[in-house]
Write a structure and sequence with these properties.
Blueprint (H helix, E strand, L loop, with lengths): L10 E8 L7 H17 L4 E3 L17 H18 L5 E10 L2 E10 L2 E7 L24 E5 L2 E5 L3 E5 L6 E6 L1 H4 L4 H7 L4 E5 L8 H15 L3 E5 L16 E5 L2 E5 L8 E8 H9 L2 H10 L7 E5 L24 H26 L4 E4 L4 H17 L6 E5 L7 H14 L2 E4 L3 H10 L13 H22 L2 E4 L3 H6 L13 E2 L6 H14 L4 H11 L19 H5 L2 H14 L3 H12 L21 H18 L1 H4 L29 H10 L6
Parallel strand pairs: 1-2, 2-3, 8-15, 9-10, 10-11, 16-17, 16-19, 17-18, 19-20
Antiparallel strand pairs: 1-14, 3-4, 4-5, 6-7, 8-9, 11-12, 12-13
Length: 683
Amino acid sequence: MNFYSVYDQGFVRVAACTPICEVGDPDFNSKATLDMARQGHQQGVGLMVFPELGISGYSIDDLLGQDALLKAVDTAIAEIVAASAALTPVLLIGAPLQHEGRLYNCAVAIHAGRILGVVPKTHLPNYREFYEKRWFASGRTVRGQTIRVAGESVPFGTDMIFAAEDRPDFTFHIEICEDLWAPAAPSDFGALGGALILTNLSASNITVGKAETRKLLCASQSSRSLSAYIYSAAGPGESTTDLAWDGQACIYELGSMLSETERFPMTSQMCVADIDVERLRLERLRTGTFNDAATLNLTPDRAFRRIGFQFQAPQGDIGLERDVARFPFVPADESRLDQDCYETFNIQVQGLMKRLRSTGIKRLCLGISGGLDSTHALLVAARAYDKLGWPRSDILCFTMPGFATGDETKSNAWALMRSIGVTAEEIDIKPLALQLLRDLKHPFSGGQPVYDVTFENVQAGLRTDFLFRAANQRNALVLGTGDLSEIGLGWSTYGVGDQMSHYNVNASVPKTLIQHLIRWVIRTGDFDADAKATLERILGTLISPELVPADENGVMQSTEDKIGPYDLHDFALFYTTRFGLRPSKVAFLAYSAWKDVDAGVWPPHFPEDKRRAFDLPVIKKWMETFLFRFFTISQFKRSASPNGPKVTSGGSLSPRGDWRAPSDGNARIWIKELKANVPDVAN
């Protein structure tokens, strides 16, 4: 395996093409097609989709019945087949073809000097500006047949799935234009039959608003069928006698657009993207409903032939034609981020409101550290109380300084509690912690600077213990603050510690999202100027549990120095739990996303001074840390998770939610795979 090869990493590079054409001129059109095919070959593309009837032109009306044209089409196809012997991509071209006295609107799959098969169009539009039944027969009953094209007999029918025999996940299905617009589209069944990539050779004249409809259809089909969808519409050169053409081409995967062309081009163009077919296979594997649908719908009359071919993938590092977000839980698009923050915050608020109503308890106990997590939990609580019409004074907040509590965080905690209008108290846990350390005969109690796990957990445990006892005394619920990232890493004190609460609103919210949620709350204007100023200060605070005193240089304990950057851990958490990807592939994606601080798009409002890059050795190091902590030492804590609402896709580690695993598992095979397939140094 080559770590830097997109094909070895489970991708297939595809292109949606709109070559310039001349109506009724197969010779011109075949040359334009081959020009683009050679470009695709140079770029390492494995599959290229061209427009419907692209060899003849779509808008030629009754010229489709001219024998001279049909013979010229056959000759043009033969030339493309011959030229394809020297090219890497599979080419899907559109052409009118004769078979047993009928004319069919066809897609021809060509690769490595041969025709793999021919797929006829099923649904022929014959309404408004369309007259396809005037010329074509439907392919709806064509199954298991052969057709004579370019001097050879090749498979013909709507019952074919094409599969690379040496790349098991490189499987595709073909449909044509109107097929996608009809209920029970042929690609529905192609996907259920095992095709991971769905393709559409389209002509589709443009009218106002139609482009958005096409995109909606492509996005929906790729999402529903857990697939990629490649769409190519006719463009420059088609006849404008009565219609117009915009050359729209786009590539979708699981509902998300990966790439698209400009519309109304003057010349040939294509968009290119790397489809993660491995991820698609795993998504279907993990979604039982998909396979239930296949069992229900793939009756004998809808069975598929599998047309195999050998695909010699381009070798080595050809780059990655795909945007990989640095923060998979945080959209880089501002409007989408705003929507995600709105939904996340309100899911948390609604969850807490329901829990308070159902218990009949009207008070909360909440520890406030001056850090991000407890701050956000307090904002959620305040909004919930406002919506319930309850006084914020019934939110009982405690700041509990220990041996390492800094003046800045303590000051921020007090400023936050005052500005929000809650009932605030300070409980100094140092005397009780010191007594407990004496009882344990811990060296610190004798004056030695020993700051081990016991030293840290005595403080963390006492804080939670106090909150539970205060809740007993004051008829309240303990509100948890631990976030998804900490739960994933097991970065919490088990039992009577910050792992436990009566209800945890942050349980499904990753660390990398919380800062954006707080910024979103600031922008909503629901809190006064003092609260906003405090929130801004908290956003700039070092992430620290503040359990170990500062060193001789005054440097405070840093969580990320000890367990690694949350930026990388959240990245690994998302792709490991949401899609089940191999560690080496997660590392490859992380390297693509994080290797260059100036590449790609950062989330809106992300501070310049916090932007950073990670090289491959750093990614590999912290990936191993993540794997060990996630698979080996943390599951027992997750198996005893308190209740909390699921917020993000794949973002619940509750044993009642997205993730169930043995508490006594291990990370051996994941770490072995990482070490075997990720280089120690980058190219």
